[in-house]
Amino acid sequence: MSDSEKISVYADWNPWHGCTKISPGCKYCYVYRQDEMYGSTVSSSICKKNQSFDLPVRRKRDGSYKIPSGKIVFTCFTSDFLLEDADKWRADCWKMIKERSDCLFYFFTKRIHRLADCLPADWGNGYDNVLIGCTVENQDRADYRLPIFRSLPIKHKSIIVSPLIEHVDISKYLDATIEEVSVGGESGVEARPCNYDWILDLRRQCVEKDIPFRFHQTGAYFIKDGKTYRVKRGYQLVQAKKAGIDYKIGEYFIPETVKCEDNLTISLPISIG
After folding, report:
1. CA-CA distance, 51 to 15, in Å (whole number)?
2. How far apart, in Å, do the first and last CA atoms of the chain sit?
């Protein structure tokens, strides 16, 4: 891929489905809500290997990959890539990810403490085509997860502050290794309110460290100037964008100047919780 070509299309890959709740941010997990909405007869806490497990390496009749070269592959967004119940399958996923070095694989996790024990033997300083987002929802989880995150050999790091359920200070964890901070409220009828003041303060923390910042969604209940607004699901991303407070985020929600070693431009447009 030439220097001028950008990744502007995406693919989804969920090798397994289902996850166990481990922290306050999981309380109203969107996976559980979606399973209930679609009438799933299997508990959302049970991890099941999906039929699309080998999707990244599946080929068409002409021999080309079903997922074209140059896509960002959103990985394991209906579970957690580091879930203990999936340990028996993850090695095969790493092999597929390595084979598809022409794509970028992005996953976020609340289990960053498990990453060191889940990495492939040839990981070294990290695969160039893997982006890892460490998710935090409150100060307690930020102070636990982010020091671990900072210590790990990962080439592309993103901090996901979502669902944001209280004011969080992450300023001491922001350095040049963090390529983006993305912040959002919680969706769903039982969602906990997100205060715009918390969003603005996180933005300030990022601007002071010159770290790209993105406000990706308001959440269902949004507090601004002391008033609580009920924001319908279809407007939560739209209203966040209208706020116009993103910092160093370019077209297609791409953090400025973020590139892989092979000159693939990275994009992290996410909607969580």
Report:
1. 8
2. 33
pLDDT of 267:
41
CA distance 158 to 177: 9
pLDDT tens digit sequence for 69-127: 989 999 999 999 999 999 999 999 999 999 999 999 999 999 999 999 999 999 999 99
- Whether residue 116 contacts residue 149, with contact meaning beta carbons closer than 8 Å, is answered with no
pLDDT interval class at 23 (50, 70, 90): very high
Write out pLDDT tens, residues 128-156.
999 999 999 999 999 999 999 999 999 99
Q: How far is Cα 266 from Cα 257, in angstroms, rounded to an integer? A: 9
Query: Cα separation of 237 and 218, whole Å?
Result: 7
